[in-house]
Amino acid sequence: FKTVTGRTGTFRKRKGREIRKMVISRMKTEDVTDAARIEEKIFSTPWSEQSFLEALEQEYTVFFVAKEEEHCVGYIGAYFAADEAEITNVAVDMEYRRRHIAEALVAEMQKEAAKRGTRSIFLEVRCSNTGAIALYQKMGFSICGTRRGFYEKPKEDAYVMVYTPEISTTTGED
Known about the structure:
Blueprint (H helix, E strand, L loop, with lengths): L1 E4 L2 E5 L6 E8 L5 H11 L6 H9 L3 E8 L2 E11 L2 E9 L8 H15 L4 E7 L3 H9 L3 E10 L4 E8 L11
Parallel strand pairs: 6-7
Antiparallel strand pairs: 1-2, 2-3, 3-4, 4-5, 5-6, 7-9, 8-9
């Protein structure tokens, strides 16, 4: 139950509940503090503000943020190289989950990848993170491997997932 227009989306939590308006845009330096705060709350080995700032300076990285009333409530980041991308993190503040924000962020990164001619997007996800795995599968990702002991604190394996968009063979002729 969502409607997305450009980079602004209207997301309905559940039938009969409040509709929230989210704006998705490129991460800017002023968003880094909020992103690092979310990172600190969610991940056992979080990125620092400095890590985000350094990543934003790289021409091969792209970060998007989801904002509600100018407040960053989620983000996604990816590295691009040749015709591949690797999603580094997808995070949504605990208070804003179950509102399709992560789905909108992944979709935005998929659009960015398509614009860049990316043929594959990879990511790693904890094997125990069934909610994230289900979301990624819904978004067209599939499990293509396992990295043993990939995560620390606690030590855990990661699934490697890949999204390979369908390559259009349409020539424009009917």
